[in-house]
Amino acid sequence: MSDPRRTRVLIVDDHLMVREGLKFLLSTALDLDVVGEAANGAEAVELVPLTEPDVVLMDIVMPVMNGADATARIKEAFPSVQVIALTSYADGELVEQTLRAGAISYLLKDSRSEALVTAIRNARDGRGAIDAGAMQSVMSRRLDEVGADLTPREREVLALLAAGMSNGEIAEKLTLAVGTVRLHVSSILSKLGAPNRTTAAVIAMKHGLD
C-alpha cells in the first residue's frame, strides 16, 4: 500500500524527452514519487497494476493506444486511480472525449510547473482542473451541441447546481432522493464533458443552460 503522505505517479508519453523532463520536474516535489514510465497507452494499462500509481499523467495523442482509450481501460479496472490528461492539444472534441473516458483533469503541456504539481496533489484528493485554453475550446462548440442530450430533469438539476446548491439541497428542492440527484449529476458531467461541478456550472452559464 502506498504511503498516504506521498503520491505515486505514472508518466505516459511517447516522447522520451518529455518523460525525462517530467521526471525531473516531479523530483523537486518531496511528496511525489515517479513509479514508472510508459511510451503509449497500451503500456500504461499494463503498468498500472504493477506500479500501483495514485495518479497517471497521460498524453493523449500516442501510437498503439491513445490516451483516451487507455484512460477508459484504467478507470474501468482501477477506479481509484486518477488520470490527468497532459497534452499539447486543446481541441474541444478531444477534451470532451478524454474527460468522458474518466480523466479528472485536462492540462496543456505549456502549463506552469506549479500548476501541474498542484493538479497532481488535487487529483489524489479527487479534485479536478481544466486548462483555461481547453475550457474555452469546449465552450466554443456550437450552442445546439451543448446540453442537447440533457433530459428535462437533468436540466433542472444543472440549473440548481449552477446556482451553488449541494446535492442535498437539490434533492429537497426537487423532492428527490439524494442518491437520485447524484446519478443525475454524474450523467450531467458525462454529457457536458465536465470533470467537476464547477466546470459544469461554467458551461451551463456560458450556454444558457442555467
Stated plainly, the CATH topology of the largest domain is called: Rossmann fold
Count of DSSP strands: 5
Main sheet characteristics: 5 strands, parallel
Give Rg in angstroms.
18 Å
- Binned strand content: 5-15%
Q: Compute the number of structural domains.
A: 2
Structural class, by secondary structure, is alpha/beta
Helix and strand sequence: EHEHEHEHEHHHHHH
CATH class of the largest domain reads Alpha Beta
Average of the residue pLDDT scores: 84
Give the overall shape, derived from the CA principal axes: elongated
Please give the alpha-carbon distance between the first and last residues.
Answer: 43 Å
Any guess at the CATH architecture of the largest domain? 3-Layer(aba) Sandwich
Comma- or semicolon-separated keywords:
210 residues; alpha/beta; Rossmann fold; Arc Repressor Mutant, subunit A; 2 domains; five-stranded parallel sheet; 10 helices
Map the helices and strands:
Layout lengths: L6 E6 L3 H12 L4 E7 L2 H11 L3 E4 L8 H11 L4 E6 L4 H10 L3 E4 L4 H12 L7 H8 L12 H11 L4 H8 L3 H15 L4 H10 L4
Parallel strand pairs: 1-2, 1-3, 3-4, 4-5
Helix pairs in contact: 2-3, 3-4, 4-6, 7-9, 7-10, 8-9
